[in-house]
Amino acid sequence: MSNTLIRLVAASAFATAAFMPMTISAQSFPQISEAELNAYPTYNGGDLELTVDASGTHFRLWSPGAEAVRLNLYATSRNGKPIQTVDMKKAEAGTWTTSFADKLYGKFYTFQVKVKGIWLAETPGAWAKAVGTNGQRAAIIDMAKTNPCGWEKDTYVTTAKQTDAIMYEMHHRDFSAHRNSGITNKGKFLALTEEGTVSANGQPTGIDHLKQLGITHIHILPSYDYNTVDETQLADRQYNWGYDPLNYNAPEGSYSTNPEDPYARIREMKQMIMALHRAGIGVVMDVVYNHTALGNESNFSLTAPGYYYRHRADGSYSDASGCGNETASDRKQVSDYIVESVKYWATEYHIDGFRFDLMAIHDTETMNRVAEAVRAINPNAVIYGEGWTAGDSPLPVERRALKENVSKMPGIAVFSDDIRDAVKGHYSRAEDCGFASGKPGQEETIKIGVVASTAHPQVDYSKGSNSKFAYASQPTQIMNYVSCHDDLCLTDKLRKSMPEATDSVRMRVARLAQTIVFTSQGTPFMFAGEEIFRDKKGVHNTFKSPDDVNAIDWNLKADNIEQFNYYCNLIALRKAHPAFRLGSAEEVAKNIVFDKVKVDNLVSYSIKNHAGGDEWEEIKVVFNGSDKPQTVNVPKGKWTIIAADGRLDKDGLGESKGGKIEAAPQAALILAR
Ligand code: CA
User: Fold this and answer.
1) What are the E-state strand segments in 456-543?
2) Per DSSP, what are the bridge partners of residue 623?
3) How far is CA 466 from CA 416, 428, 520, 642, in A?
4) For 32, phi and psi rounded to 5 degrees?
5) Do 429 and 439 meet the contact criterion of CB atoms below 8 Å apart?
6) 386, 418, 444, 487: which is the annotated catalytic residue?
7) What DSSP assignment string belongs to 215-230?
């Protein structure tokens, strides 16, 4: 488990800023029994909340517990009184409706429901697809007008199987905000549409940098409308990761050039996606359906109080998210909501895949529905999540979408905290080293990582540092990584755990760490900027740290150009060789053969038999995590040296005749024939 708990608690504490909807006291919030909630009719008609068509503007709110529902129409996204308030009529399946004969484009609206005699605060609803400033009111817009020129020709970036993808996790501000980025639209969706940008010292940045690196997908941190950043005060350069959801189906306003204009955030996000697609890069969105930033004041609570959340026996919110509440995907209307929401992003925005935050708060059935629904739209969609929670949940363990339950979710991948902690050391104990930085005893867990947590006759799971059984049925169910936005980034981790080393040595260790990730079976995942040895000034939880901690200093690219070139070569190696990204556990078990090694910090194996149709008959992979050279025995023959002593080239660094070969310290040795 990562430090999600800490950052969510902190994020939650920030949710009370003055611009938020009026707070309701606990006494004035309706208490509805679990029996009542479970008896609610559900509605999944596809026309929830707002539809504009030739016959006019139609509203349908799902609010089964309501005694009365009002619709307020506004001329502006905030301030001012309603220009019209109408009573909605009770309709089928717990919904309330009203219609207007005109297309009300340009207007804003809120709903207001009365439950158990209490009128709740106004809400834009749970399904607002366009919103104004700070997401307080929903906007009625012509969605066709949000499409950038050429959008109808835009389509998904596809990889044949999930293990062919190479994920690059980034935050909009991290990536572009630094003064050295050379990017005009700093911290905005549009940053990723700018071509030809260079750092202050002349190296390509932005989308050109991504093309150079060769990743297949970016994974953007939450980009739906979140709560914390005040969209009226953008000059303050506020920062937040965005794990504090407000409106799930509209983009975040602070990433647009004008949060006041409901069209801008949608159009600009689409421009970003189209620019990335043109560059051959897919877009995976980080989605946080597991909790909302607000509890009683959330859009869920203000439309159907109690229904969307799990509760303890005393009626309080249960809190598996560590943020004060957790959603109830085991309820039909919530499960439908999650499924319909990801379908919406996949169709309206051409999103190529989804990363589920604290996925184990959701039930496995919902996650399987998600995978089925998204892949019906895009068969090659990438779907993965955090297979853990940040606290206990009323949802039974066997139903949780845990990594230990991933065999029940054939179309979903989970992050491997096994390989993460084995390679670099414990995620939260800063001083702890891992295999790559010299800690002995992690060899078997490295092997677990190499085979993507699938069953293998030579891997003894009882010796694993973390998981004790082969939880993945297929390598496509595993995401391999050594760092992400959570916890210390790789540079900071190596600085804290190797205090005596030089940065030059740490960069060598970083290359080894990523070589383990990128040559292992499963899908590799990296954190933006690691390829240029970016740091975050030693701060482990930067969810609201300022730009001077979080922004990538692009001048590091020229300073560390050899590091960058190594990453490029490593990615090129993986893309050129299907043996590193096999599609089935059977292929992994059959073609990967580990060498018997009795030395600490040394793992040696072969991928044999032209695995996956590879041009190479055999690939010998040796990881030496110690600070001393180690001698390994390689069968005699004509080998090409692919990686040695901290250098790597898929086309070869030289030749070897095999036999006793020295593996340099803190480096990977890769040979092929
Ligand atoms: Ca927002």
Assistant:
1) 478-480, 523-527
2) 603, 668
3) 10, 14, 18, 31
4) -125, 130
5) no
6) 386
7) -SEEEES--EEESSS-
Model confidence at 524: pLDDT above 90? yes
- The CA-atom distances, in angstroms, between 337 and each of 44, 62, 181, 248, 332 are 8, 11, 38, 10, 8
Give the chain's end-to-end CA distance (angstroms, integer): 40
The phi, psi pair for 36, rounded to 5°, reads -65, -45
What confidence score (pLDDT) does residue 27 get?
56
Q: Has this prediction a pTM greater than 0.90?
A: yes
Is 357 assigned a catalytic role? yes
Distance 18 CA to ligand 1 centre (A): 14
The residue assigned the tokens 């695995």 is: 611
641 within 8 A of 654, measured Cβ to Cβ:
yes
Tell me how far the alpha carbon of residue 132 lies from the centroid of ligand 1, in angstroms. Answer: 9
| Chain segment 33-51, per-residue pLDDT in tens | 999 999 999 998 999 999 9
CA 131 to ligand 1 center in whole angstroms:
9
- Mention every residue, 6+ apart, whose C-beta is less than 8 A from residue 307: 32, 37, 40, 64, 65, 300, 328, 331, 333, 334
Dist. CA 47–CA 344, nearest whole Å: 12
How much distance in Å is there from the Cα of 482 to the middle of ligand 1? Answer: 30
User: Looking at 352, 357, 363, 535, which residue is catalytic?
Assistant: 357
Is 386 annotated in the active site? Answer: yes
Q: Cβ(434)–Cβ(457) under 8 Å?
A: no
Instruction: Count how many Cα atoms sit within 13 Å of the Cα of residue 373 in the half-sphere of its side chain.
Output: 20
Which is nearest to 619 in space by CA: 534, 519, 540?
A: 519
